[in-house]
Amino acid sequence: MIFLNINNLNVSIEGKKILNDFNISINEGEVHAIMGPNGCGKSTLANVLAGNEEYEVNSGKVIFKNQDLLDLNIEERAQKGLFLAFQYPVEIPGVNITPFLHASINSKLKNEKKPELDNLSFAKLLRKNAEELGISTDMLKRSINTGFSGGEKKRYEILQMSILNPELTIFDETDSGLDVDALRIVTEGINRFKNPKKSFLIITHYQKLLDYIRPDYVHVMRNGKIVKSGDISLATEIEASGYQNF
Amino acid sequence: MDTETSQTLDKYAQDKYKYGFVTEIDSEKPKKGLDEKIIKFISNKKKEPEWMLNWRLNCYKKWLKMNDPQWANLKFPKIDYQDIYYYSAPKGFEKKPKDLSEVDPKLIETYNKLGIPLEEQKVLAGVAVDAVFDSVSVATTYKGELEKLGIVFCSISEAIQTHPELVKKYLGSVIPPGDHSFSALNSAVFTDGSFVYIPENVKCPMELSTYFRINAEETGQFERTLIIADKGSYVSYLEGCTAPQRDTNQLHAANVELIALENAEIKYSTVQNWYPGDEDGKGGIYNFVTKRGLCKGKNSKISWTQVETGSAVTWKYPSCILKGDNSIGEFYSVAITNNFQQADTGTKMTHIGKNTRSKIISKGISLGNSQNTYRGNVSFLRKADKARNYTQCDSLLVGNKCGAHTIPYIDSKNNSAIVEHEASTSKINEDQLYYCRQRGLTHEEAVSLIVNGFCKQVLQELPMEFAVEAQKLVSISLEGSVG
Amino acid sequence: MTFENNFINHSKEYIFLDNETILNQREKVFKKIIQKNYDKKNNESLKNITISELGKFNYFYKPQKEDPTISLIDNSNYEIRVINGICKNYEDDNIEIRNFTNLDFKRFLNQDKNNFDDIIIDINNVFLNSGIFFNIKSESRLNIRLIHDTSDNFTIFQNNFINFKKNCEVQLEDHFHLKHNSINNINYNIEVEEDAIIKHNIFQNFSNSNKLYLTSNTVCKKNSSYNQNTYNFSAGFVRNFHHAHLNGEFANASLKGCFFLKDDNACTNKTNIIHNAENCVSNQTYKGILNNHSNANYYSNTFVSENAQKTEGYQLSKGILLTDNCSFFSKPELRIFADDVKCSHGSTIGPVDESALYYLRSRGINKNQAMKMIISSFIEEDLKNLDSESAKIISNNLSDYLNSLVND
User: Fold this and answer.
1) Averaged pLDDT of chain B
2) Is B5 in CB contact (< 8 Å) with chain A?
3) Interchain contact, A75 vs B457, CB within 8 Å
4) B409-456: per-residue pLDDT in tens?
5) Rounded to whole angstroms, how far apart are CA atoms A194 and A31?
6) Nearest CA to CA, how far is C119 from chain B (Å)?
7) Which ranges of B171-293 would DSSP assign to H, the alpha helix?
């Protein structure tokens, strides 16, 4: 099975080209990191994979679990097991996480033709996961992301990931705006969730995050494409001398 | 707008109204039209004392000299008051039935269908219901239990017989019949409605509720509700309403008066779901309602909560007169308009006493070809020292054929009073939609979730039993396909 | 004097007397006023006004003795003195300015009919006795200072046209030097062409025997920008009604003002912005301080038509009431027919912030001084954009006002 294969992907926004013959392959259970300077197209990649309608795919192919990903709309991709941990999770006042996430998980289960969760078993699942991530029940009562600090929002994203149980998780600069403690809590959550069936695409500007989650592959991205691939030593190289060598 | 959004909108447009059925029942109606004879007929049917009839006739004379208010942002043909039946009662309703065995089973069935069981073994737990069918009250549940506490909960026609002194004292004391033409009309021809009296220091242990149903064709419903909370008492009251689906417009012109004495609190909630007309704007109820509460005593409180989803035309401004020092007025409103519905709704907070406080939270959602207007008036009179108002009104537009309008009037004549007003109008936030869909929700589910979130501040003010219902109603008003 | 007397006795003194169409139109408008033929619904020009009271003035207009002037301080700085509604005719590479002649009747007839059923504009049309035509040429970069001198007892009914041509950048200032007992009913028709950037500052400070009705109707074309600020320190009555139409994409308009009232003075303000094109931004902000028995009204309105997607419209009104006898009425309206919009309004009315007052006093500042600091801070933001000379005028006016507050 092809898990994720991106082949010569070209993407633009409002006529401006952002991804330029972009290629990558990710297998089941692998952790990939994409690093790059600001404006290289990292976040665009994350949003195109999630199906954000603001971007225009000009050409190229994306296969996810043997299926053409570009044929699916936003929610169909999510139901297929793709999860995007947002760089800036949006605030949704008045909407509580419980009904929201309950509807989300059930849409996925329904898609997989599995029995849906009832209120009680979902509440149990939510509480268990929240406890593991050190999220207080008080925080579960608040509206989604509303009035949360940067760290709280990111923890909330990890909580949603652990409940929706995706096969592919994309972290879009999850480390941005986090202090060391928050970063540790978030990465512990990710590490707990890791197993040979799960794949990760970590998009980041700094090496810091990769100290906590060891990637199998590191790619350097510039001007809308990958310019170099290697292992973790590549990240150390960037940390030492920046992006200008690439 | 992307195609998906417009597809979802198209779906919304096919709104369905599940209370549109008609009960086939023989009813008694005098001829159409309004004159002194009809008023005498109504008064006679209700076996009213002479003072009541004179009061009605007096109001009728006032009405004759008045024109309908024109300032609202509403367009509808001139109402022909001579083409309406002013009284309609199921046959055999000479007297209110003593118990359900005397009530036509068809009527009980009607309320069952509406989700309001009247039979003793099935009644809603914790809610006493007065069921009004066209011009008459059919049944009141839990009456005995309330009587033990001295609480009076009955139809207004009954109260005129049993508690004339209270009715005489308070009827028309908050809404003077000469206020405007709809109040004069209602005062002249009101047929039924509820009467509540909560004695001193009694906290009413259950929700009191009236359920209004217009059934007969070309019939106006003119209900009159009067709620008096004596010193230190508390009551929570809920009003619900539906009507059959018909091609012609029907008139509903209610008057509701609330009086809160010292330290008393009244919470009045409405879930208004009159038939809104079809997707081409044909039919539906014209809803011209005057609701006003008087915080008469010190430290009293009146709180209005409304969820307005129905009616072809809504003209409604539940208001508070904050006369007692330290009294509190609140208004929480959700108004959803779809298809060709028009709503001009809001509130009026008049601060008279010292230290009075008011709060207004209004959420308007416009869809389809509808027009949705918030109109609010906050005024501080000279003596309203240290009075405060906070107003927040937000509008959401879904689609570009509808309109959202915010028209607040703010008048301060006291320099220690503080008024704060905030308003916003925007479309549904695309980032929020994207976020929800990334988590697997469909476009439609995401819209419904976000709109419910938008209304939450208001919905959470409803009594528990109805909050869930109201939430569903919001979703239905958006989708049409659910329910 | 009544409307009828004024109209009949002085009809020889108006302009456009030899044009039959205009005479007929005048007759018609005059009848409309007399018959009070107005739709009262949402008509702010009629609020707190009795039509017959409005007609009780003594029409007075005579050819002036003093000559109007125009002086060039340098190539880009003009000072124009308008005396009793008359300017000096002048033209150079940057600017053309001249008085209306009877030949301009077409322009007068064709002016934007959309004057919102405003009775003050109707009166202006009926008694019209002066008008100035300004043409600011393309690409020019100018500062124009316009001084309106009105002599004792004059009643000025003036209709001005300003055309800011493409890509010009202008700061226009209006100053009102009114003597005694004058009535000034001035209506501006302003056109801002593509890419023009206009700053319009209006200074109002005159004694209490004068009245000023200032109305403007501005049309903004593509990519243009119009920023208006009114500063009202007058002891006499002022009506500021300002409308802006955003008719071209990416245009922006801002109508801002502040007023400082005392004694029995009143002022009434209205701003109205109509979005007719996509991607436009608008802002309406009025702030007022009221003392003694003064009272003020502020009506604001953002109208977004069906095709004006991606609109941003903001409104704000703030009032500080210093005594129990003043009053402030505010009506911030939003009328929205397009869905992709961000519009908001905020309004606060109240006393001086007690906690701020307390804080300042706890630092040893006396009550009066603290009060002055808080009131100054209230409009500080609005003074930021002024050049040093204008800022000086305002700060002098403000300190005069603040000194008048001292009463303990």
Assistant:
1) 85
2) no
3) no
4) 999 999 899 999 989 998 888 899 999 999 999 888 888 889 989 998
5) 9
6) 19
7) 181-189
Asked if B443 and A75 come within 8 Å (Cβ–Cβ), the reply is yes
Higher pLDDT among residues C357 and A8, named by residue: A8
- Nearest CB neighbour to C339, from listed B400, B405, B414: B400
CB contact under 8 A, A104 and B449: no
Domain-wise residue ranges, chain B? 3-479
Structural tokens at position C113: 């009919």
pLDDT digits (tens, 9 = 90+) for B122-148: 666 667 777 777 767 767 777 778 889
Q: Which two tokens stand for residue B15?
A: 């709104």
CATH number of the domain at A18, please.
Answer: 3.40.50.300
* Contact criterion met (CB below 8 Å) for A48 and A57: yes
Q: Do B432 and A52 touch (CB under 8 A)?
A: no
Q: Could you say which of C41, C342, C351 has the minimum Cβ distance to residue B415?
A: C351
For C321-367, what is each residue's pLDDT tens digit? 999 899 999 999 999 998 889 999 888 999 988 878 777 777 777 77
Q: What angle do CA B82, B84, B87 make, to 5 degrees?
A: 120
Of these ranges, B116-125, B456-465, C214-223, C345-354, the one predicted with the greatest mean pLDDT is C214-223
Q: CB-based contact (8 Å) between B365 and chain A?
A: no
pLDDT at B280: 80
Q: How many domains does chain A have?
A: 1
Contact C332 B421 (CB under 8 A): yes
Q: Which domain holds residue A166?
A: 4-241
What is the chain C residue with the closest CA to B375? C333
Per-residue confidence (pLDDT) for residue B122, from 0 to 100: 64
Whether chain A lies against chain B with 3 or more Cβ pairs closer than 8 A is: yes
Which residues 24-63 of A have a C-beta within 8 angstroms of B?
50-53
Q: Cβ of A78 and B440 within 8 Å? A: yes
Q: Is the pLDDT of residue B14 over 50?
A: no
**What is the value of pTM for the model shown?**
0.83
Question: Hey, of A76, A95, A146, A164, which one would you mutate to test binding to chain B, going by the most B CBs within 10 A of its CB?
Answer: A95
- pLDDT for C78 beyond 50: yes
Token pair for residue B104? 């036509």
Cα separation, C197 vs C203, in Å, equals: 20
| Interface touch B438/A160, C-beta < 8 Å | no
Across residues C141-165, what is the average pLDDT? 94
Question: Is A84 an interface residue toward B (CB < 8 Å)?
Answer: yes
User: pLDDT at position C408, please?
Assistant: 40
**Cα C170 to chain centroid, rounded:** 18
Which residues from chain B sit within 8 angstroms of residue C346, using beta carbons? 420-423
Report the alpha-carbon distance of residue A49 to residue A170 in Å, rounded: 9
User: pLDDT confidence of B13, banded at 50, 70, 90?
Assistant: very low
* Chain C: closest CA distance from residue B294 (Å): 24
Tell me whether residue A246 is in a domain: no
Listed ranges A189-203, B398-412, C214-228; the one with the highest mean pLDDT: C214-228
The answer to whether the CB of C327 falls within 8 A of the CB of C321 is yes
Residues of C in contact with B409 (CB under 8 A): 329-331
Name the nearest CA neighbour of C218 among C258, C195, C246: C246
- Name the nearest CA neighbour of A198 among A161, A225, A230, A173: A161
Contact B425 C346 (CB under 8 A): no
B440:A75 CB<8 A: yes
